[in-house]
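Thread: quick sanity check before group meeting

JM: Hey all, I'm pulling together slides for Thursday and realized we never actually wrote out the predicted structure for the chain we discussed last week. Dropping the sequence here so it's in one place. If anyone has concerns about the input, flag it before I start.
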Amino acid sequence: MTGTRYDPIEMIERLVSFDTTSRDSNLALIHFVRDYLASHGVDSTLIHDESGNKANLYATVGPADVPGVALSGHTDVVPVDGQPWDSDPFSLVQKDGRLYGRGTSDMKSFSAVALALVPEFVARPLKTPIHFALSFDEEVGCLGAPLMIDRLGAELGVKPMIVIVGEPTDMAVVNAHKGVYSFNTRVRGLEAHSSATHRGVNAVQYAAVLVHFLTEMADEMAARAEPESGFDPPYTTVHVGTIRGGTAHNIVPLDCAFTWEYRLIPGADPDEIRTRFERFAEETVLPRMHAVDPGTSIDTELRCYVPGLVPEDGSPAEAIVMALARTNHTEVVAYGTEAGLFQEVGIPTVICGPGSIRQAHQPNEYIELSQVQACESFMRRLLDEVCAK
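JM (edit): ok, ran it. Output follows.
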C-alpha cells in the first residue's frame, strides 16, 4: 500500500496547523494521524473522553503479539492568548535555522518526526513493534493518557516493553522528574458592610492566611534542599497560581478561591504538605471563622495528580535509549510528564525528545532545525534496533 509521504518538517507543519489548545478538541489532528497511518496499512484505536470531543490514539507498526517500543506524545498545546507572537502561532515559519509555531518544542516535533518515518517502519521487517501513543490534555493534568494506559495489555494488545516520552530534553536522556499535586481551595465567608467587619467573615483575608501558610511551607521545603538529587531547584516546590475573591471594596467578601500545587522530589512523602495544610485550616483558621458564623467553610479538592518519574538505573528503557541517543549519562528535570503514569503500571520509561523546555509555553515558540535532525537520526537508529531484535 502506498500512502501519503511527508518529510519531518512537512509533518511538523501539518501537526502545528491544528489548533489543539487544551480547552478545545484535538479530533482534527487525531483523525489526520489515523487516516495517514491507515494509508500505510496501520490500524489505530481511538480512546475518547466522556464528551467524545477528544481522543487518544494508539497504533502498532509491526508484530502485534510482541512487546514493543512505545513513542508517547501529547497532542494538546497551551493557549497563545495575549502572547506577543510575530507570526501566526499555528502556521509553521522557518527562519534562521529554526521552526516557529505553537507546539514545535512542546511537543509535536517528536511525534511528527516519528510519523514521517512510518513508511520506512512499514517497509522494514520489524521484529520488535513500534507503538504510537498520542494523548490529549497533558497540559491540564495528564487527563487523557490514563484512559489509554488502562487498556494496555487488554484491547490495545501486548503491553509495551519500554516507553519513550518525547518531551523536549534537547535529546538528552531523562530518567527522573518531580511529581505534581494540584489543588483548588475555596474559602466561604460571610458578607457584611465593610464598616462592620466584626459582623462578617472575610473570605479573602482568611484565604490570605492560608496562602501565607503555604509560603512558609515553601520556605521550609527549600531549607530541606537535596543538592545531590540533581533537580533545579533541588527541593520540593510549593506554588500558588491563581486567586479570586470579593465583589466590591466596601463589602466583606463572601467567597475566595485559589489554586495551588507542589512539585515533589521523588521519594518524598506525597501527603505531608496537603495533610499539614488541611490540619492548619481545620485547627487554626476555621475556629476563628466559626466564632462569627459556624456556616463558613474551607474546602480543598485535588485538581490533578501527575506521578513523578523515579530513576531506574540500568532499566531496559534507560539502556536502549542511552544507546540510541549516543550518551552515557542521564539527567533529571523539574517539569512533569506522562512518564510516571507509564512507570506506575510497570513499564520502564524514560524521556527523550527534541527541543528545549525553555521555549515551551513561550510566545514565538521554536525548535532548532538541528534538534529535528538529531531526532530523525535517533528514530533511524531505533528503526535499525527494532529490526535487529
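AS: nice. The chain has two domains: 8-176+309-388, 179-306. The chain has a mean pLDDT of 96.
JM: adding both to the slides.
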